[in-house]
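Worked problem 6 (solution included).
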Amino acid sequence: MYCSKRLSKYKSISHCFLNKKGGKSKGIYKSLNCGKGSLDDQKNINKNLRIACKKIDTSYKKLILVNQIHSNKFYFFDKKNINHKNKKKGDALITKEKKIILGVLTADCVPILIYDNKLKIISAIHAGWKGAYKGIIRKVVKFLLKNGSESKNLIAAIGPCISQKNYEIKKDFKTKFLKQSKYNKIFFKKIKKKTYFSLNKYIYYQLSNLGLKKIDIIERDTYNPKNNFFSARRSLAKKENDYGRNISLIMIN
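Solution. The predicted structure is:
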């Protein structure tokens, strides 16, 4: 279990970034696979979600997840529309309700947790390159700012994801990003005729550009098996037919 040093300063919230350790799943999903979209036994996934929620001393019944689609769509949950049983499609969650857990699933993509320590509002974002490129982070932060947050009060934690050295990309990928902004060239590195992309640095830049000053990056490479995370790219390299998902959680106490 990993935590952000910045977020951990606030006793009004609980949060964590979990790897694959400590669950009930077997085989390629061993062991804390929390991805309901995987081909794993759903009974084991539900057991794993309960285990994950206990990490922040709360109940699985309070967990909200969405069907992640690599989009820029987010949801704000209040007392009127909180219903974790009705799964929605999107890639970010926001709430100011206490004892409601916001969760995102990743397997190389970036989990981002945000907390407004003045307004007591939280967000959990799933950001792969597509979502980040489409502006999921900007849309969430702009929503918070529009609804009373000040950038100086927003604390963000960028969780474990694939590292640049393991994120090889093709030429058209880089071209797409450079069309968006020439500044994006700083997130690419060429080594022995191969090009690599830094997803977490790209996201850090987006958050910083939106005025956030308090940003953590948890430098844990999900591709490296030593760190014990599920990794879509590693599973593909091993020619496995599926992969598990890591979960990241945040809750107002």
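Discussion: Residues 42-54 form the longest helix (13 residues).
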